[in-house]
Each structure stands twice: as C-alpha cells, then as structure tokens.
Amino acid sequence: MTGTGKYEVLLARCRELPPIPTAVAHPCEESALAGAMEAAAKKLITPILVGPAAKITEIAKRAGIDLGRTEIVDVPHSHAAAEKAVALVREGRAELLMKGSLHSDELLAAVVARDSGMRTGRRISHVFLMDVPTYHKVLVITDAAINIAPVLEDKVDICQNAIDLAITLDVQQPKVAILAAVETVTSKMPATIDAACLCKMAERGQIVGGLLDGPLAFDNAISREAARTKGIVSEVAGDPDILLTPDLESGNILAKQLTFLSGADSAGLVLGARVPIILTSRADNVRSRIASCAVAMLAAHARRRTG
Q: What are the φ and ψ backbone dihedral angles of 160, each rounded to 5 degrees?
C-alpha cells in the first residue's frame, strides 16, 4: 500500500473476492443509502437495508437510486434498526455492520448491549485509514472516535485491534508509533509512561504481531530525519504504519488536520466487536466511503479464513 493510489490497491485486491453480506442500519438519508448502493455496485458488499421500508424506497426514488433486488428489513425507527442490524450479525445473516443515517452512539449502544450485542473480550476501538498525499503508505490513526481517555489496558486492545487489521491488509509486522508530546519518558506526562509500558508489554508478548516504539513526538514519529536530529535510533521512526494517539481529542484533531490541511482521504472502521463496523460520515467523499467498505470486506474475508 505504498505510493500513489493507495486505496486503489485495496480495491484491486477486493475484485478477486465475493461481496460480503452487510447489515446497513437505518440508511434513511440520501448519502447513506447511496454509499451502501455504491459499495454494492462495486461488489464489495451485499447490503441488507434495515429501516422503515417506505422511507427507504421513497428516498431511493427521489434520489434516482436503483435498489434492484436489495433486501429491505422493515422496522419502524432508527433504534429498532440498530438492534435488528446487530441481530442479523448474531444470526449469521450478515458478516459486516454498516452505519446508515443514525447517530454513531445509537448504533454502538446496540453493538455493546450486554445480552443482545456484539461484544468480544476486546475493547471496541476506531481506526482511521488515511491516504495522506505527502506520506508513502496508508497511515492508520487510532483511536480518534470512541475511547475518550483510554487507560493503559484500553490502549493494549486499541493497539492490538489496529495491528490485527494492518496484518489483514498484508502489512508484515506493522510498525506502531506511540505518540506523545515528547520522546522522553517523564512522570509529568502520563502518555509517555503508557508508551514505555506498551513497548515493554510487546516485548513480553502481551501485544503481538507489531513492532512498537514510543514515546515518540509526531515529528520524529513521521520523519526519519527529525528522529536522527534528536538522536533517536528506531526502526519505527519515519516509517510507521500505525499512529497510536494518547487520547480521542488528540487523535481526532490529528486526523482532521490531515484531511483538511493535507488533503488526505480517510476510511473509518470500528474494530473489536464480533465483526468490523463500517462507520462513515455524511462529510466523507465517495472515495472514502468506498475505501471503508473495501477495508471491512478484506477484514471479513480474513475472519472467514481464520474461523
């Protein structure tokens, strides 16, 4: 996934694979419905639209969206749509979950419901897969959308979720830069202590599959020259696949800076549940929405292989 057209590399891999049955929760707004049907047209997903059937067909007709033979599961409102979409996953009828026009919190509440949800032993976390024009490969940023102030144990799962996803995208031993404001460990900055602990935990096998380094400030995480100037010797510096941010606010700011100042595209996924969750925004362009579906599709096929 290097060079130009990073997302297109993902789409090329998807062409060899069959589409994945996907429960789309409450696609009752034009962009949400169009996003699901665009992904279906590219044979990434086979959507099952869950929401008020009359409203969905009305939106499709008004927007000129051809639903064809797409299955619609009729439920009265967004809350019921979230619950039913999750139930379709639990029943094995769907292998992906996709957010429609309901609020993310409403969908995730159904996902984490104790008895009827899609919990696993892992903490749920979000990843942005960013295609940054000035960076040489897809860059994963986590967590910028779900865990507000993760403690060390949360960060273990956030890190492992991202590593596992990168591996499904054919990244061999993903490199993880654990970000802080400085690259030295100090008790005055808890993020630096967490970073040092995560690196030691990886050495002891508590985090597997990745190559971790931190704490690293953003400049020496992303620039080998900046790291060299600071005297940092690191296999990760200048070449990370994953940026693990200290908290949601810093991660969200970083991702949006890259989008609006650097012209990056971002695909969004929620990991750590029974199946990947495609979490797109109305502000996402078509390329980002399709990329989100492509990454989720590849992750779903990886789950099929591993059982």
A: -65, -40
Quote the pLDDT of residue 1. Answer: 46
Per-residue confidence (pLDDT) for residue 307, from 0 to 100: 60
C-alpha pair distances (Å), 187 with each of 48, 107, 200, 243: 50, 38, 17, 22
Residue 295 neighbours by CB under 8 Å, 6+ apart: 10, 129, 165, 169, 267, 269, 276
pLDDT of residue 287: 80
Query: Read out DSSP for 67-85?
Result: -TT-EEEE-SSHHHHHHHH
Tokens of 269: 């996924």
Q: For residue 82, give every residue at least 6 positions away whose Cβ sits within 8 Å of its Cβ, in sequence order, or none.
A: 25, 26, 102, 106, 107, 109, 110
CA separation, residue 257 to residues 57, 179, 252 (Å) = 37, 16, 8
Cβ atoms of residues 185 and 215 within 8 Å? yes
* Residue 194, SS3 per DSSP: helix
Paired tokens of 5: 């057209």
Neighbours of 98 (CB within 10 A): 30
Residues 254, 266: Cα–Cα separation, whole Å: 12
For residues 236 and 175, the answer to whether their CB atoms sit within 8 Å is yes
Rounded mean pLDDT for each run of 10 residues along the chain, 307 residues in total? 67 92 96 93 96 97 96 97 97 96 93 93 95 94 96 98 95 97 96 98 98 97 95 96 98 95 92 93 76 93 80
The reported pLDDT for the residue numbered 2 is 45
- Token output for 31: 């962009």
64: its two tokens: 């000129």
The helix (run of H) or strand (run of E) holding residue 46 is: strand 45-51
Domain limits, CATH 3.40.718.10, in the chain: 122-272
- Tokens representing 125? 């976390």
What is 1-119's CATH number?
A: 3.40.50.10950
Give CATH for domain 122-272. 3.40.718.10
Rounded CA-CA distance 160/112 in Å is 19
